[in-house]
Amino acid sequence: MRTISDLKGTFELSNGVKMPYFGLGVYLSQDGNEVIGAVKDALNHGYRHIDTASIYNNEKGVGAGIQQSNVDRKDVFVVSKVWNNDQGYESTLKAFDDSLERLELDYLDLYLIHWPKGEKSKETWRAMERLYAEKKIRAIGVSNFMQHHLEDLLTTANIVPMVNQMEFHPYLVQEELIDFCHAKGIQYEAWSPMMQGNVFNLPQLKELANRHQKTVAQIVLRWDLQKGVITIPKSSKKERIISNADIFDFELSKADVQLMDSLDRGQRFGPDPDNFDF
């Protein structure tokens, strides 16, 4: 198992880039004061990883929050994603430039294809490989790619994606997909770790939280990391941002992890990568 030390700790990607394994997600954080405040609070508390996307419409605020924090740009791992409407070779290059401009950054640490779009994603990936070769991105990856999407992409890819960001929580573990990614050197990452708030209703997690004297959220986030899965819980509230990160003073036992794994029921709270219409 990889070492989990503190909030600034990292997992190493296949190309040697060190990606902080705990970050702030800003999905649904409003551009302007809300997202600026969340990013500043997170960075000033010790977070070193911020995850946004062009479709979130808050890249401008994310960039401002980074600039207004007490942390140097080089110490922040910034992630964004190309949206479905922008997929394709030339349109991806433009979408990337637009994201950089909104963020007011010179480069991204990680750029992801947001959703699999078949042949179009192959052209998108070709553009991302070019941006990577030009050192405008430190790492490239995908989001919401099932095994067959990855296998299809790899028929034409020159570079294996370094990250796959997936819906991941106690009701959707997808251990076979994790194993496939691991075998290919693809780092697994979680979105929606809290099951859109539904984790707080699970009695097994309440019991674990009581036993470890932690919150249910902290139990889930610790489980993510012990599974080797990078996690980016989203919040715009300072207290929650700080509380989410308070997971480095305890450890789940092997039995605890197995118990949480056993809750898996293949249930999604977000869109199905095999059946979405956007």
Note down, in words, how this protein is organized:
The chain is α/β, with parallel strands linked by helices. The chain contains 10 helices and 10 strands. It is globular and about 55 Å long. The strands form 2 sheets. The chain has an 8-stranded parallel beta sheet with strand order 3-4-5-6-7-8-9-10. A two-stranded antiparallel ribbon has the order 1-2. It has helices spanning 33-45, 59-68, 89-103, 119-133, 147-153, 175-184, 203-212, 216-226, 238-244, 254-261, and strands spanning 10-12, 18-20, 24-25, 49-51, 77-82, 110-113, 140-143, 163-167, 187-191, 230-231. Helix 4 (119-133) links the parallel strand 6 (110-113) and strand 7. Helix 3 crosses helix 4. The model has no long low-confidence stretch (mean pLDDT 98). The chain has one domain: NADP-dependent oxidoreductase domain (TIM Barrel). The active site is at residue 56. Keywords: NADP, Oxidoreductase. The record marks 81 as: Lowers pKa of active site Tyr.
CATH architectural name: Alpha-Beta Barrel
What distance lies between the first and last C-alpha atoms, to the nearest angstrom? 37 Å
Sheet with most strands: 8 strands, parallel
Instruction: Specify the CATH homologous superfamily.
Output: NADP-dependent oxidoreductase domain
Proportion in β-strands: 5-15%
Number of helices: 10
Mean pLDDT comes to: 98
Alpha-carbon Rg, integer: 18 Å
Low-confidence stretches: none
Portion in helices: 25-40%
Could you state the order of secondary-structure elements as H and E? EEEHEHEHEHEHEHEHHEHH
Structural class designation: alpha/beta
> Strand sequence of the main sheet, in spatial order?
3-4-5-6-7-8-9-10
- Supply the CATH class: Alpha Beta
Shape: globular
* Domain tally: 1
CATH topology: TIM Barrel
Number-wise, the strands total 10
